[in-house]
Design a protein that fits this description.
The protein has 396 residues and is of the alpha/beta class. The strands form three sheets. The protein has a six-stranded parallel sheet, with helices on both faces. A three-stranded antiparallel sheet has the order 7-8-9, with helices on one face. It is elongated, with a radius of gyration of 25 Å.
Length: 396
C-alpha cells in the first residue's frame, strides 16, 4: 500500500511548478487527475529536447502516474464539471496566475463552500497576496528576487542560472509538503485550507543565513564562483584526464585525512591551514595547492583514493555518468519504465524512499485525455449521453 492511496487530487495548471507537485503526490499513490485543455494539452507535452523521431520525453516524467482528462475551463459547462470534480477531491493543485480561477468561478470561496474539506494548493510566482501578487512570475525572475541569482556565478561576471528550473521544482515540493501538513490538520479538524506556495518564497527559504548575516553584521553575500567564501577546501578541481572532481574537506579532521591522501601530512599542522578560519583566509592559496596535486592524477584514481581516505569527493556527473555508476544501479536511483512512445525510458526514481510504504512508478505520462470518460463516470457519475454532449460541444 502506498502512503497516499485513496487520496484524490485534481491537478490544474501547466508547465512545471504545479505539475511537479502533482508528480510527487502521484509517486506516492494519490490518484492524480490532470485537467488539460482539449486539443492542445499541457505545454509540457512539447517541451524538452526531442529524440531522433521528434518526440520529447519530459512529459513522460512529469506526467507519470497521473490520469489525463480534457476539460475546457474557460466555458461555463466546463466550469460546472470542474466544480463537480472538486466536490469529490481531497486536494486541488493549481498554478494559474492569481485571480484566474476566481474569474472562472472556481476560486477558494466557491470550491470550499462545495467541499469544506478541500485542500487547495495554489502555486504562483509571488504568492496570493501583496503588491506583486498579480504579476506574472516565472522561475527565472523569482530566483533572482529570492536571492539565488545574485550569489550564483563568478564575481567578475553577471549572475548565472542553474541549468534547471529550480524555483519551479522547489515551489512544487513546498506545495506537496504543505498539502501533507494540511491533510494532517484535516484529519484533526475535518477542515480544508489553502496552501499558498510561491516560487519567490520557496527560493528565499533556501538561502540559509543570507538575510540574518546582513541584518546583524551588514554582510552582503557575493558571488564566489564554484566555492563558498570561508569554506576551504571545498571546490571543484582539475584532473589529468580533463574531468572535474569536487572535494569537500573543510572540517579539520577531514582536511587532515586529505593531506595524508595527498602525501603531504605536514599541511594539516601548518598554522596557515590548521584551523577552519585559517583555511578560509587562505582559500585561494589552498585551492591552488590542491589543484596542483589533483591535476597530476586521473579522475577515477582520485575518487578511489579519497574514498579510501574518508574524504568526501565525487566527479561532476552528466547523464551518461549517472546511468553507468554502480551506486546508482545498486539503489535503482534511475529506473527504466515502459513507455508507449519510447518503448523503454530511463528516468529518476521515486524519492524519498519509505521503508514500509514506498512510492513507485506505475506508468509514464498518459495520452491527452486518455482517462476523460472513465474519470467523469467514476468521480461524478456522468452517463454516456452527457459525455457525448460534452464532447460534441468541445467541453471535453
Amino acid at each position: 500500500m502506498k502512503p497516499l492511496q485513496g487520496i484524490r487530487v485534481l491537478e490544474m495548471g501547466q508547465l512545471i511548478a504545479g505539475p511537479y507537485c502533482g508528480q510527487l503526490l502521484a509517486d506516492f499513490g494519490a490518484e492524480v487527475v490532470k485537467v488539460e485543455p482539449p486539443g492542445s494539452g499541457d505545454a509540457m507535452r512539447q517541451w524538452g529536447r526531442a529524440d531522433a523521431e521528434g518526440n520529447t520525453p519530459w512529459w513522460s516524467v512529469i506526467g507519470r502516474n497521473k490520469k489525463s482528462i480534457t476539460l475546457n475551463l474557460r466555458e461555463p459547462e466546463g466550469q460546472a464539471v470542474a466544480k463537480q470534480l472538486a466536490a469529490k477531491a481531497d486536494i486541488l493543485v493549481e498554478n494559474f496566475r492569481v485571480g484566474t480561477l476566481e474569474r472562472w468561478g472556481l476560486g477558494w470561496e466557491a470550491l470550499s463552500a462545495i467541499n469544506p474539506g478541500l485542500i487547495m494548493v495554489r502555486i504562483t510566482g509571488f504568492g496570493q497576496s501583496g503588491p506583486y501578487a498579480g504579476r506574472a512570475g516565472f522561475a527565472a525572475v523569482c530566483e533572482a528576487m529570492g536571492g539565488l541569482r545574485y550569489i550564483s556565478g563568478y564575481p567578475d561576471r553577471p549572475p548565472v542560472r542553474v541549468g534547471l528550473s529550480l524555483g519551479d521544482s522547489l515551489a512544487g515540493m513546498h506545495g506537496a509538503l504543505g498539502a501533507m501538513m494540511a491533510l494532517q490538520y484535516r484529519h484533526q479538524t475535518g477542515r480544508g485550507q489553502v496552501v499558498d506556495a510561491s516560487i519567490l518564497e520557496s527560493v528565499l527559504g533556501m538561502t540559509e543565513g543570507l538575510v540574518a548575516e546582513y541584518d546583524r553584521g551588514g554582510h552582503i553575500r557575493e558571488r564566489f564562483g564554484s566555492a563558498l567564501p570561508g569554506l576551504a577546501p571545498s571546490n571543484a578541481y582539475p584532473t589529468s584526464d580533463g574531468r572535474e572532481i569536487v572535494i569537500g574537506a573543510n572540517q579539520d579532521s577531514v582536511f587532515q585525512r586529505l593531506c595524508e591522501a595527498m602525501d603531504q601530512p605536514e599541511l594539516a599542522e601548518d598554522l596557515r591551514y590548521a584551523t577552519h578560519r585559517a583555511r578560509g583566509e587562505r582559500q585561494q592559496e589552498l585551492d591552488e595547492r590542491i589543484a596542483e596535486w589533483t591535476r597530476r592524477h586521473p579522475a577515477e584514481v582520485l575518487v578511489a583514493r579519497l574514498a579510501d581516505a574518508g574524504v568526501p569527493a565525487g566527479l561532476a556527473y552528466r547523464a551518461p555518468d549517472m546511468l553507468a555508476d554502480p551506486h546508482f544501479k545498486a539503489r535503482d536511483s534511475i529506473t527504466r519504465v515502459p513507455d508507449p512512445r519510447f518503448g523503454d525510458l530511463a528516468m529518476q526514481n521515486v524519492f524519498p524512499r519509505l521503508s514500509e510504504s514506498p512510492g513507485a512508478i506505475d506508468h509514464t505520462g498518459p495520452g491527452l485525455g486518455e482517462h476523460t470518460e472513465a474519470v467523469l463516470r467514476e468521480w461524478i457519475g456522468l452517463d454516456d449521453e452527457h459525455l457525448q454532449r460534452l464532447r460534441h460541444d468541445n467541453v471535453i
